């Protein structure tokens, strides 16, 4: 079955996975980098050193699909009950197969005390916005990053 939770595993990233995850991140975000020319915040422009720092100092998880590394998720703790989905990255050959929705649900289940989740995405990326809205996120604001890119803020409150 496509996207079945049994096919997905999420575990803290091991530093030995860094090269493979870094390559997936570059591949997944390269088209956005070219489209928006956002060399400050786009993950495809991130240095390997910065990527390693995120693995070490944030809640950084590797996503496995059918026991193969398929992507990563980077989460930041704002407070005991407020976390930010800083980045979710899935290998392009695993996108649009229902995995993303299940991964988001699994992450929420991993942190049952978190009642407020937030994230940012591109304002003009209808696919991402629809994905997050379908997952229960609501639009809360926006900020212009450069003449090509405006990010929108989303939040999800869990009762």
TrEMBL record:
It comes from the Bacteria. InterPro entries: Acyl_CoA_acyltransferase (IPR016181), GNAT_dom (IPR000182). Residues 6-159 form the N-acetyltransferase domain. One of its GO terms (molecular function) is acyltransferase activity, transferring groups other than amino-acyl groups. Pfam families: Acetyltransf_1. This is N-acetyltransferase domain-containing protein. It comes from Heyndrickxia camelliae.
């Amino acid at each position: 079955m496509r996207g079945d939770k049994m096919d997905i595993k999420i575990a803290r990233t091991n530093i030995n996975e860094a090269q493979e995850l870094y390559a997936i991140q570059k591949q997944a975000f390269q088209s956005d980098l070219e489209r928006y020319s956002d060399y400050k915040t786009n993950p495809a422009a991130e240095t390997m050193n910065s990527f390693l720092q995120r693995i070490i100092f944030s809640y950084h998880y590797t996503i496995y699909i059918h026991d193969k590394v398929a992507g990563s998720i980077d989460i930041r703790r704002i407070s005991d009950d407020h976390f930010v989905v800083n980045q979710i990255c899935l290998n392009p050959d695993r996108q649009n197969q229902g995995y993303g929705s299940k991964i988001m649900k699994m992450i929420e289940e991993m942190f049952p005390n978190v009642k407020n989740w937030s994230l940012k995405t591109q304002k003009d990326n209808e696919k991402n916005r629809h994905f997050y809205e379908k997952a229960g996120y609501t639009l809360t604001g926006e900020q212009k990053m450069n003449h090509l890119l405006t990010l929108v803020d989303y939040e999800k409150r869990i009762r």
